[in-house]
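Handout, tutorial session.
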Amino acid sequence: MKLVTLIALALVIRASYATLGFDSISTLSTSTFQCLGNNGYSSFIARVASTNGVDNVGVQNIKNAISAGLTDVDAYIAPCPASCVSASNQVQNAINAIQTAGITVGTIWLDIVANPDWSSDISTNRQFINDMITTAQGPMCFSDFEHF
């Protein structure tokens, strides 16, 4: 019985920390973020870098989300492992874009998903991801079972 009570308590505590949020790669105005905030959304994550380099739409969306009052704003990088700049430069370019825009985010995440540019050599991929994490000075990866 104590175990059931403990599990139920843990679920209640976990649920109390949940926030309603979303991610988008489309341009969103400050007024759109205000509307979403008025309807219970407080969390947003924007892509700030991908195979095309820095995503200025994502950087602007972060600015708009913060201006609209969203309280939990993060960024993510969709890595380009083959034909782009180095892993370290991808992270540094994203960080520079965020800093240049004068904004602060909670976390910069790596979006590790299937990509035809990943090497068939697992060690090469692992080193690429480790180089990104080292540059960012901390782990920040997300994926799912299907892509990892």
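The second record follows below. Compare its token runs with those of the first.
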Amino acid sequence: MLKRKTTQFFFGAIKLLIAIGVISFVFFRVSEQEISVDSILNQLDTTSTISGLFLTGILLFTVLNWMLEIKKWQLLSGIVQSYSFAQTAFIALVGHAAAIITPLKAGEYTAKAYYADAGHRKKISFLTFYGNVQQMGATLIFGAIGCGIFTYYFYYEYLAYVVLAICALLAVLWGLKHVIWNIAAAFKHFSVDRIRLFLKTTPRNIKKNTLHLSLLRYLVFAHQFYFLLLIFQVELPYLLVMSGIFLTYLISSITPILSMFDIVLKVGIAISIFTFMGAEELAVLCATTLMWGLNFILPAIVGSILLGLFSITTTTLKTYP
């Protein structure tokens, strides 16, 4: 009885710490930014192209983005343990809330593993890692495309060299894939031999479908960024804007930085790229901050609220709709 109460108190304290951490994180990041709600509203007032339907569409991009992420996790986790869509949504959002306040998104691995059966937790942790690798792969693919488009617009005479450099880099990465897997596996404390065996036994259609979902999810939030830039009157050719978005995510993804400083990095990169293209700094700042809020902070708040409202454990999750 005492052990049960101690366990309940322990996980209750974890929930409280996560909720406080998320709230503190949001307050810290917003107060640190050189931007306010008034500046965003003033920028919105400068355009007459905005309608309620258009803004609703922007929010629907966020919903679609996370629905794709939830479906992707449902497919991956279903390899070892089946969840309903509602259960998967709970786990994914709580994991995201834990990830943003822990170094290297360690909280995501812990949260997702916690809601799995004890015998499946190592596999669930690896599947979390594998899903993140797939999303990173989508970032690299579109980042390479963005690099080529950017070069075509501004440094056309060097386009052939850039294409060759990208191809050479991809070839090197492919050739060193075993070395990269060894480093990554050691970093996350996974056995390389077990990883190879697990991947061989993973259904090919699952790996293919989750990769497709990663690519589709990338296109969804990239176009949400594009439409936000349109709202703030960044009037540049479609392909040029998309190349800037692709480069922003590529550079920010390969730059080692704690999650809590992600917005600072993205804003700095986006401003550097888009002002070079001729966009106004405030417009880029507003669009990037809103993207961060809609796709990073809003889901984390939802996840922390779910964690606080529902006392769900490994056992009770199975009865969750």
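Points raised in discussion: The radius of gyration is 21 Å.
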